[in-house]
Amino acid sequence: MKHKVKINLPVIGQCLLMCVLTALMVYFFRAHITTGERQHEQVTHLFDAKSIDAKLDKFALALSVGSLRHFDELQQLDKALRHLTDRQQSGQVGAEYQAYLKLLSHKMALMEQLKTQAVGMRNGLTYLPLVLDEMIAIQHPQALLASTILASLVTSGQPLDEVLLDTRIRMLAETSGSDERIALLSRRFVNHIQVAVHYYRQVHKTRQQYLAIDSKAAFASLYRAQMDLHAMQLQQTGTLSEQLFGLAVVLLLMLLFILQRLNKAKNHALQASQLLHDAIERLQEGFALYDSEGTLTLTNQCWLRHYGVLSKAQFPQTLDDWHLRKSEFVHEQSETPQRLQKTTQGRWLQIRHARTAEGGYVYISVDVTEFKEVEAELKTAAAVYQATQEGIMTTNADLEITAVNPAFTRITGYQEHEVLGKKPNLLSSGRHDTRFYEHMWQTLETKGEWAAEIWNRRKDGTIYPEWLAISAVQDEQGQVQQYIAVLSDMTERKEQEAKIAYQAMYDALTGLPNRRLLLDRISQDLKQIERQPHLSALLFIDLDRFKRINDAMGHDAGDNLLLEVANRLNHLVRRTDTLARFGGDEFVLLLSQISDVEDAAKVAEKILTSLAQPFTINGFEVISGASIGIAIMPDDAREQQEILRRADLAMYKAKESGRNQYHYFAPSMQQQVNRRVELEQLLRKAIANNELAVFYQPIIELKSGQLYGFEALTRWPHEGQYITPDEFIPVAEESGLISELGEWMLTQATSDIERLNRSLNLNCSLSANISSQQYRLGFNATTLRHILRQTGFSPGNLALEITESILLDDDEAILAWLEGLRATGAQLSIDDFGTGYSSLSYLRRFPINTIKIDKSFIHEFAHAPDSQNLVRAILSMAASLGLSVIAEGVEHVAQLEGLKEMDCDLVQGYVYAKPMSLTELQVWCEEFCQEQAKNLA
Questions:
Q1: How far apart are CA 445 and CA 447, in angstroms?
Q2: Alpha carbons 104 and 111: distance in angstroms, whole number
Q3: How far is 326 from 319, CA to CA, in rounded Å?
Q4: How far apart are CA 39 and CA 231, in angstroms?
Q5: What's residue 2's pLDDT?
Q6: Helix axes 667-688, 725-735, angle to 10 degrees
Q7: What is the pLDDT of residue 326?
Q8: Which position has the higher pLDDT, 42 or 497?
Q9: How far apart are CA 773 and CA 734, in angstroms?
């Protein structure tokens, strides 16, 4: 971009005027200073010359009397005089000054002569005193005369009588005698005195010449000329100063006038600028002005607001910077003639620009966001009109169809050209009477809109349900211009609603009523009982062994079994009864209006008999059975949830009693539930207060009679007696407290037996039960390792007892869990073996080390051959699989002997010891070990 130099003539003129005024003022003060300085310099030179003149006079006097012995200062005066002579002083007093200096130079020349003559005179006089002393010493006859002659020469300030002096010298020279020495001294004195007199006369002559020079008059004339010159210069300087001052005043007035004009012009410019700024700020459009150099000079807030900045300083200050930083403000820009920009704030701007007369640019931005949104909405509306699934029909005020969309054609079957200009009543199905349409038009007239479900007829004659919404479009005067109808085909929706209504009330698998419909039927029956008293029964049916079948054969087999069960039950009930699938493998049968309570028992027996028969599922025979709980309405309850709960309690009682049977609800069942709730609260408190205890029952190695280990058993002392494990363990499992209880028991037991082994130098093992619920609550190998590290108990001496039921799941998760426990070094044992669904497959599949024969087989051991055979088979099987066997519940010697004959490995029971506390166990162990030691001895 080319840069042009801008010339502001008013500013330049103002600056020149200020410079001239300043120069005049400087010259004014400088003239005064220069005149004074020049006068001072010239006067200084005059007095320097005067000082030299005075010193020369002083030296001349000293030389003339012979008192000057050193000439160094005289040489310095000569240098000073030459220095003054070298300075050329011009002007009106220059000639007088030079003439004065010439006089001084002449005096200096005479001073040099005088110096030479004085030296000669002084040298001549130097020996005279010596000669005079010799003359006096020899009593020279003319010694007095010689002394008088010498005195006349050395007397300062006295005029010399040369005639008398010459006479005295001749008299001394004419002195003769026979004494040669006197004659010699006379000659010597005369010779020296004549030389001294010669120089004395020259000094006197030169001094007279020196004194004849009138330097004082010359200096006075020079000084007066200098003073006159200075006075004239001062007068000239004053005149010039007055002229300069007048000129400065004129220039100052001109400057003030110019400044006033400029200030006035500036105020006009500021007013114009403010008006321009206000006008630009009031613009609805954004405004930006760049000068010819591309620099931003003016913007309004609208422009800054368009680009999301608060001040001009935040916006690029040049066009070059704007192009570099545009991405900070503009998200996208179209290349269309409209020059649309989308800012980073999501606003759309239309940009226009033009060049100014000075070569700059003016930019105008218009926010067209709303226009773009409306445009987009129109496009969307058009697209929706064409693509929407709802049919759209417009009519004029005379109800003549003016337009329909493709969805209208798809729903009604009519093409657009078939309905244009016709009335909408061609779709009428005839199902609605006149009042229906009168209400529709009345609503449209009063509210301007109407919507309802309606039945219409398609082109092919089929009648279909439709949701129709009509809006009246009015002009400014409130006159209807057109009607817009939006219609939706509700055929599929109606079918879905019917399907949903069915699914909401019926089970998807069996087609039986579900829990929701069952509750409704129970509620209706209870209401009918209030109106017309009668008996009804609720049978809660739970399939036995369903989970095992479902897990073993798969969920498809389980679903097929449920279908077969539902089919059999349907054949056993009346049409007035309600058979529902309550959830999972639970069914509920509502027997309405039975004549006697026994009728419910009869139906229950039929159900048990029917379900006890084998089912053929996926080609396999399956036996399930069921447990049924019966509650009578209104005897047992008068509320739907309560009657269900009581039937459920009766069903659980049937399961606890051995399954495949039914039970009526009895108040004692509720008492059992209340007891469970109470036990849970007490157990939670007992765990928190550490009220539980661990008892131990010894396990003996049968062949050797040695102590093998102990089984840990949890005991709960409460109010002077013990709550049995059979009562509180199920409560702990149902409430989840078994997790905390089990970990506490295992920690306590391993700690106790570790201390016991150390104190008695034993290496006994420990058996502890692990509930299947503990597995579900997160007990794992990590927890076990933590407990063993905490107590220091050896993992190899620990046996974890699990029940057969946990192995029935036979899934990978159970296998991984057991293998993790086994990996810690602990042993795994199956408790109560033979009482559940024993299977050789899980003994092979799972990492089991030991099996425990249930005490029920041991109790019947002595008098039941079947039990003996079963125990023998278990021992044989365990031996073949490499498993050790523990027989528990051994109470009599006969049982012990029988087990010994069958080579049973380990036994525990009252025949050796009952479960005991740690303190009792320590005493028992000491006695047992002592007894064993005696037997060995």
A1: 6
A2: 10
A3: 10
A4: 10
A5: 40
A6: 80
A7: 67
A8: 497
A9: 8
